[in-house]
Design a protein that fits this description.
Elongation Factor Tu (Ef-tu), domain 3; alpha+beta; four-stranded antiparallel sheet; HlyD family secretion protein; OB fold (Dihydrolipoamide Acetyltransferase, E2P); UPF0194_transport; single chain; rod-shaped; six-stranded antiparallel beta barrel; 14 strands; Beta-barrel_RND_2; 337 residues; 27% strand
């Protein structure tokens, strides 16, 4: 009997000793959180096709939807035609005058020079005769006017010949080159607008919502989908101020959920909020609801894609050791322990 009493007393002492020890493990409660993206067309138009449904997994660059591209294709064709015209103009200026054009200008100049020389001789002859009253003053004046007109025509043809020999001015070539670059930029813009009538997935993810449907008018301000991004994935939890001093970024953690009992996901503390806030109503905590808490972000390895947005999760901080990283990690199975 005495032995039994001593054993019972010893067991009670051990129980009290165990209760008095402070465990190194900390447990917090939160919800799974992920990032989302809401892609939209960069141009406006009517949607002709939606290629994916809700719940579909998409990869970056995958075609999601298309717009009616009739007007954008026509704008591209117009811009390409304008660019071809500007390019031809620039090429003509760079090539300069053709030999035939120079020869034609010289022939015109020579012909007008011969005409001016002849009109000059006629004028001088009539002027001499008019002094002797052998020719009328009217004939002299007519000859003078013809001579002056022929001389001016010759001077103009001479300048035209010199321009043909020299070719276009450097300033004109520079202006033509700038006009060609402007047309090329317009083609690039039109081609980009045409390409933007196809909406591609910006990243790997899962389609959560189809916001628009075929026949709807799309614009850059109106998203077409909501896409959940599978990485990074974390648990948003809240820590009482009394426990804050025991946490630091890089500490390892394990995460478990009710949906997959017995499965623990490896993680680590990636963020601790620098400011306090009131406990959100959706968070389970043994502390008072009016207590101030600090938000933490525990990044989680989920290679099997089991965790979902908003899923309640339990975070257990086991030891103060840096995480080894998220690549190649698999959830641990502990048989429900």
């Amino acid at each position: 009997m005495a032995v039994m009493l001593l054993a019972a007393a010893g067991g009670a002492a051990l129980l009290r000793l165990g209760d008095g020890r402070k465990s190194d493990a900390m447990t917090f409660y939160g919800n799974v959180d992920i990032r989302e993206t809401m892609p939209a067309f960069e141009v406006s138009g009517r949607i002709t096709r939606i290629a994916v449904q809700e719940g579909a997994r998409v990869r970056r660059g995958e075609l999601l939807a298309t717009l009616d591209d009739t007007s954008y294709a026509a704008a591209l064709a117009q811009a390409e035609a304008a660019m071809a015209n500007r390019k031809a103009t620039l090429a003509r200026m760079l090539a300069g005058s053709r030999p035939e054009e120079i020869a034609q200008a010289k022939a015109t100049m020579d012909a007008l020079k011969a005409q001016a020389d002849n009109d000059g001789r006629v004028y001088r002859r009539l002027e001499s005769l008019s002094r002797k009253s052998a020719a009328s003053l009217q004939d002299r004046d007519n000859a003078q006017a013809a001579f002056l007109a022929a001389r001016d025509q010759y001077q103009a043809s001479r300048q035209a010949y010199l321009l043909a020999v020299k070719g276009p001015r450097a300033e004109d070539i520079a202006a033509a080159r700038a006009a060609w670059r402007e047309a090329a930029a317009a083609v690039a813009l039109a081609r980009r607008n045409l390409d933007e009538t196809k909406l591609h997935a910006p990243a790997n993810g899962v389609i959560e919502d189809r916001i628009l449907e075929p026949g709807d008018m799309a614009s850059p301000a109106t998203p077409v989908f909501t896409i959940a991004l599978p990485s990074p994935l974390w648990v948003r939890a809240y820590v009482p101020e009394a426990e804050l001093g025991r946490l630091r970024p890089g500490m390892t953690a394990s995460v478990s959920t009710d949906s997959f009992p017995g499965t623990r996901y490896r993680g680590w503390i990636g963020y601790i909020s620098p400011t306090a806030e009131f406990t959100p109503r959706t968070i389970e905590s043994p502390e008072l609801r009016t207590a101030l808490v600090y938000r933490i972000r525990v990044y989680v390895c989920d290679p099997r894609g089991q965790l979902r947005l908003g899923m309640p999760a339990t975070v257990r901080i086991d030891k103060a050791a840096p995480a080894t990283g998220a690549t190649g990690c698999l959830p641990d199975h502990d048989g429900g322990r």
